[in-house]
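Appendix B: complex inputs.
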Amino acid sequence: MNNLSYLKNVVTLKLDENKCTGCGMCLEVCPHQVFKMNGRRAIIRNRDACMECGACRKNCPAEAIYVESGVGCAAAVINSLLGKNAAACCCGPQTNPEGKNSGVCY
Amino acid sequence: MKNLTLPVIQNNFNCCVPVQSAQPAYPSIRQPFVTGSLETTTGILPRVSSSLTWADRRGAMKARWGVGRMNYSLEPGLYALNNPDANSPVLVTANYKMSFDKLRQALPGRNLWILVLDTKGINVWCAAGKGTFGTQELISKIENSRLKEMVTHRKIILPQLGAPGVAAHAIKKRTGFTVYYGPIRARDVAAYLDSGYKADAKMRTMTFPLKDRAVLIPIELVEVIKPFSLLALTFLVLGGLGGPGNYWANLTNFGHFAVVALAAAVLAGAVLSPLLLPYLPGRAFSIKGFSIGIITAIFLLYLRGVNFSAWPDRIEALAWLFIIPAIASFLTMNFTGASTYTSISGVKKEMRFALPIQICAAIGGTLLWLTSRVIS
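Resulting structure:
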């Protein structure tokens, strides 16, 4: 897995440590171990591992996390460049019910 | 007797509450994979088992190759896996048939409830990203299926990859159910249940092993078959032009090689790249694809035995050194959508530099190739 890390310093993830209540939900939902607990607060451990799925932001009851989420998918970007449905991506109903993670999730 | 009548009274009482006056709509038991039914106080539920039939497997295989993949779904709602009771766990999944099958297959001999959300036949991860595997949908399915009357506990287990769509705290507030995020993979769910809803770091981390990358190859190929055919045909027809011999002799030589070269580019970008992903240099997918494209092109030209003393041969070789890496790079970049670790910010960044280069290389290479056809 050492080579399976994506570009450095690109993600939009931000954590407001002052708002954090230390519930640990972000650690639970993050699929890439981006967060860790530092005493009674969460901190960002590995920012470059973030894939901007938005799970942490959605599940943070304190609204301490910000991330511009979206599916990291070239087809989606091309579609929006061509003026097609910008929200459509490789996961879109017209194109691909598989998309990411193929069959790993349930 | 008293114990028996009590739930019925309770049920009648609930029926009279205006908000829940409608009959709960349970999924049809007349779906091919349903093996039986479970009678409950609120209606008849379809019952399924953990063993997949030949039809289930064939459906999955077809979906992998893009056949009937867009409506490979099942009716959303509450299902019974084997013989659940009021204490059985509740698992939530998407109504993409393959997601549902993977989940039940991983839980042989267990009795539990499976609540299937209406994600329009899309898997959990993608649906969560789009919001169809979402807070609102989960609330409505919990209410419509009368889950509170089915189970005495107030816990529901969601796949961790559903988290981008669901706000756990909002579910708790609106329905009283506490969301437990289970492991990423269906195969870990049994261990998760046995450990009292605890997932270790490994269960929570998304990887992208060879097997997961390999199953995506068929659909990558299917999606590229049409543009490939058009391109190959064009090159084949143009291959007969110019050249030393007559049209058909040239077509057989240069045209055929062009088809082989284009096929090699697709092979590099849609097969070799996914397989070799961790070993290809660079972080950006476009660079990974470019590298495998260069290697493929050199290997192919070596096999062709290019005559480097003649200009047309030199130019033709150079043309393929542009075209093959351009195609391989583009296809590999498209594979970001299937990978499990690329961010949208990163994809946008790499596309800003890669897309213009890919387009220029493809056009430049084609012009070179045409030149080699004309001058020979």
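Residues 14-66 of chain A form a domain with the Alpha-Beta Plaits fold (CATH 3.30.70.20).
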